[in-house]
Amino acid sequence: MGKVKVDHSLFCLPWTQTLLGTHLDGKINFMALDWLTRVNYSPAMLGICVNKMNASNKAIRETGEFSVNVPSEDMVEITDYCGIVSGSKVDKSGLFEVYYGELKAAPMIVSCPVNIECKVTQTLELPTNSFFVGEIMNVFSGEEYITDGKPDVEKMKPFLLTMPDNRFWSIGKNIGRAWKDGSRYRDKLKGG
Amino acid sequence: MGKVKVDHSLFCLPWTQTLLGTHLDGKINFMALDWLTRVNYSPAMLGICVNKMNASNKAIRETGEFSVNVPSEDMVEITDYCGIVSGSKVDKSGLFEVYYGELKAAPMIVSCPVNIECKVTQTLELPTNSFFVGEIMNVFSGEEYITDGKPDVEKMKPFLLTMPDNRFWSIGKNIGRAWKDGSRYRDKLKGG
Fold first, then answer.
1. Under a CB-based contact definition with an 8 Å cutoff, are residues A22 and A60 in contact?
2. Which of A112-126, B108-122, B149-163 has the lowest mean pLDDT?
3. Size of interface A-B (CB pairs under 8 A)
């Protein structure tokens, strides 16, 4: 079978790269964020994982609010920069033009194709990280990224991170339709 | 600025497509799973979001164990099939050749390039979904997918899902290096 154990600190799934926006001691701050997922269908909720040593962890605790911003391929360098320098040492408040939705401490980046503002509803404390669950209050996008009323990944051009090889990846080709391609497989099973 | 509100039930980030493996009433079961993330650095922990109506939710409650399997591009149809039919109605136990690591109720799929076995440590109950946090006990990969000791995304060929357009995507080109490209930006800031 040829299966071998590999580093069990798995980072090898591609994660969509985002930028986490907070207010840190009253000042706008951003950090690179990869560990996040939807956690509830209705209402729409997003969960994000932030190391307890990160300044953003303290920021979210204080305000109970955050934004998730999805950068495009042409923002690789500035996004990675936000992951390299800590908000406790470097002022990142002037890096981006920002705007606000209905929350006061969830700054959103104008140049990112998609912006999400969240209000914390639960916090799960884990050994080294906090998992903040936030209700999605609003999602914003630029009109230029929208097709048929929905943000279009081919226009947004988000990018991915894999670890521990630490590489960024573009999104590739459309290779199928969900909730559709599986019905072909079902038909084959029935036919067989 | 041209920002508009879009469907706030955001699905538009690309998620890596996986297959969740469980034992349902003693029988092997799989479902398509997209909502998952790392939730702790050390020890390595993974969080997965499963709707309370899914048979897999009940399965994980009963056994406290699950597997996450990362299919490759050539498995689009069978993966999507696992998301279309419910384990409460259709027996999916014979779909894949499976193997086990150290857990008894975390069946892993031989044909998937990466398999992860997890033991539940916490469960966060949300309105429509449960968020199961599992400690990663082991990660397995086929030797043919490994480069320099690590699973290699270019060999694994995982794929992504975007919603609500419901499209599957391949991984594209390598467009940068994390914790490296940002230092170029830092140099520019210093230079300026």
1. yes
2. B149-163
3. 353
Strands B129-142 and B114-125: antiparallel
Q: Please give the Cα distance from A153 to A147 (Å, whole number).
A: 9
Three-class HEC string of B45-98: EEEEEEECCCHHHHHHHHHCEEEEEECCHHHHHHHHHHHHCCCCCCCCCCCCCE
Question: Which residues of A are less than 8 Å from B51 in CB distance?
Answer: 41
Residue A79 host element (H or E): helix A76-84
> For residue B83, what are the contacts with CB-CB under 8 A and spacing of at least 6?
A178, A179, A182, B31, B32
Contact A11/B149 with Cβ under 8 angstroms? no
Whether the Cβ atoms of residue B32 and residue B166 lie closer than 8 Å to each other: no
**Inter-chain CB proximity B5 and A81 less than 8 Å:** no
Q: Tell me: the pLDDT tens digits for B39-55?
A: 999 999 999 999 999 99
Contact B78, B110 (CB under 8 A): no
| Interval A73-119: pLDDT, tens | 999 999 999 999 998 999 999 999 999 999 999 999 999 999 999 99
> pLDDT confidence of A164, banded at 50, 70, 90?
confident
pTM over 0.90: yes
> Element (H or E) spanning A30, and its range?
strand A27-33
Which among B14, B37, B77 is the nearest to A153, CB-wise?
Answer: B14
Complex-level ipTM: 0.95
Identify the CA nearest to A16 among candidates A55, A73, A60.
Answer: A73
Dihedral angle at the C-alpha atoms of A124, B25, B114, A37, nearest 10 degrees? -30
Cβ separation of B165 and A149 shorter than 8 Å? no
